[in-house]
Amino acid sequence: MTLQLRSLLKSTGDLEISLVDAPAAEPQADEVVVRVDATPINPSDLGLLLALADPTSFQAAGTPERPVALARVPEKVVPGLKARWDQSLPVGNEGAGTVVRAGSSPQAQALLGKAVAMAGGSMYAQERLIRADQCMVIPAGCMARDAASWYVNPMTALSMTETMRREGHTALVHTAAASNLGQMLNRICLKDGIGLVNIVRRAEQAELLKSQGAQHVINTSDADFMAQLTDALAETGATIAFDAIGGGKLPGQILTCMEAAINRKAQGYSRYGSEVHKQVYLYGNLDRMPTEIARNVGMAWGVAGWLLTPFLQRIGREDTQRLKQRVMDELTTTFKSGYTQEVTLAGALDPKAIATYGKAATGEKYLIRPNGV
Amino acid sequence: MTLQLRSLLKSTGDLEISLVDAPAAEPQADEVVVRVDATPINPSDLGLLLALADPTSFQAAGTPERPVALARVPEKVVPGLKARWDQSLPVGNEGAGTVVRAGSSPQAQALLGKAVAMAGGSMYAQERLIRADQCMVIPAGCMARDAASWYVNPMTALSMTETMRREGHTALVHTAAASNLGQMLNRICLKDGIGLVNIVRRAEQAELLKSQGAQHVINTSDADFMAQLTDALAETGATIAFDAIGGGKLPGQILTCMEAAINRKAQGYSRYGSEVHKQVYLYGNLDRMPTEIARNVGMAWGVAGWLLTPFLQRIGREDTQRLKQRVMDELTTTFKSGYTQEVTLAGALDPKAIATYGKAATGEKYLIRPNGV
C-alpha cells in the first residue's frame, strides 16, 4: 500500500483534504512505477487542492499518521464547482523520483533505478504509475529536489519565448515579473539575447529583477509608468505580452503603449491605427475583475487566454520534447528553483502550512517529500 | 480635366471638403482609366471624409459649381489626426464605372468599354486610374448602380463566414445585425446553410431580420437576453462572433454565454473551463468605451480587432479572387444594396446631405453619381 493525497469537495461545501492508502500499482509493459521523492506545491496546484477555500480557515482532524484538513468552501462558489462534487481527487502537477518497478518493454526496463522527472497530475503520492515515454531522465549530478519543479514554471517560461518566435515577434513583455516564473523568464531572455520588458508593482520587486541583470523593469506604482513603458517598448520592439494578472486595466494599457511606441516611427496617416499586430496573452487569474481594453489600440491587436498544455499540443511531440530536453540540460542554472520549506505528505495538511503556501506569495514555496524528508 | 472630391484638415482644426480639378490621367500599359458612374458613401468612408467633425455643423462656401463644405473638428481630436494635417486627401472606398481609356497591354485593352467594379480609395471622382487586374468585370445585365457597393459590405460579410470556416467554427454570431451588412450576412448564411445568431438592440430590428428569414434573433433590450443568447448558442454551436460595436460589455457577454452553452454538454471537472476555443472579432467602433471581458469565460478564448484588408492579404490572391467572383455572380441577389438618395459630387458637399448621411443610420444610404445622376 502507498499513500496518496486527496482533495474532496462535498455538495454541502465541506472540503476534506486527506491521505488515503492505495494498492501498489503493477506496471504494464510500457509503464514504470516511480517512487516520488520531491513534488512542489505550485500556485497552479492550489485550485484543485483548496477548491477556493480560504487558506487560513483550515481545521486539523484525523490522526498524526492519517491527518485530515477540513474547511468550508464559500457558498457562492460551490455551485460553480459542481463538476467535482463528491469526487476524491488526486493532486500535484509535477515531481521527480526514482523508478522502482518497470514493465517488460525495453524502454521501461531501461529506466529501472533511474532518477526521472514527471508531469501530469497525481504527484502528491508515495508512488506514481506513468508511461515510460513520459519520463524525462534527470542528468547525472542532479537530485530529485533539483528536478521536482522542472515542468510548470520552466516549460511555461520557455513556451512564452517559443510563442513569441512562432508568432513573429522579437521581444516580449511580462507582468508579475518578479515571480519565480518571471525570474526564470528573465534568465532565459538574458541567455538567449531576447528583449524583455518586466512589469512589477513594487520598488523592491524592481530592485530584485535589476540585481538579476534585467534591463527593462517598469513599476506600475510610478506615476509616469505608461510613459516609461512606452519608452521600453520602443527600445525593445516588444509586440507580445504575457500577463499573469488577467483582470483590470493592465492588459489594455500594454496594448495602448505598444500602439503608441509603434506610431512613433509611423509614416503617414492610417485611420485604423498601425498595421503591426499587438498581442497580449492572459495566462493567470490573479485579478478576477473584468479585463478592460481601451479603444486607442488600433485594429491590429488581440487578447486571449493562454495555457501551457494546449500550446504544447499545438506545437506537437517533437518540439515539445526539444523544450523538455532544454529544461533538463539547464536544471541547475536557467531553470533552478528554490524552496522555503520541505514537508511530508502529512505536513502538507497542517493548517499552518496551508495558511502559508495557500497565499501563493512570491518567494514562499513548499516542497513535498512523500517518502520522507 | 476631371473633378475629384478632397478632404483637407488643417492643423488649426479647420476642415474643408472641396472639389478640385485634376489633369486627365494617361494609363500605363497595364492600367485603365474608369469613368466613375456610381460610388456609395459608406460608414467606413466617413472617418476620412469628415475627420470626426460633427456632421450637423457644416457650412456651405464656394460656388454652385465648385462648392466647399466647412466645419471645425473638435479640438480634443485634432492632435490625434496629426498624420493627415494639411494634406488634401481623396476619398471613396469603392465604386463602379466604364473603362474609357486603356493601356497597351492585352489585359487592359480587353477592358475597353466594359463596365467594371473597383475598390481601393479615391473613388469620389469623375475618373479613376487603376490597374487592369484590379478591375472586376460586371456581369451582363447589371448596372454600375448595382455594382457600386460590391466590395466593402459584401466582401466583409463573405470574409466573416470564410474566417469562421478557416478557424474551425461551424456557426457564428453577429452584432448590430440589422445593418445593411448584417442583412447581407443573413442572406449568405441562409443560402449556405450556416447557423447565424443575430444580436440587435430594438424590437423593430428583430422583426426586420425575422421577416427576412433569420432564425435566431436576440434583442439585448430583453431582460433575459443572456439566457436567450445562451440557448441560441447551444442550438447553433456558434463559437465565433463578429462585433461591430467594439466597446462595452457585449463582446464579453457573448464569450460568457458561449462558455455556458458549451459547458451544458461538459463531462467532468476542468479548472480551466472548456477546451473549446471561443473567439470574438471586433470589426467596428460604434462604441468608443473600453471593451470589458468578464473572467468567467475559461482560458480558451480570444478577442481581437478584425479588418477586411489584412484578412484578404493573409488568405492570398487566389482565395480573394474566388470571394470577389462570388460577389459578382450574386450582385443582384445575395449582395444587393439599396440607396435612399443619389447625388452629384457637388451634392455630396451640401450641408443638409452631410447631416443626413453623416449619421450612418441603418436604412439611410447615399450614392454619388460623379458624372451626373
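The two ends of chain B are 20 Å apart (CA to CA).
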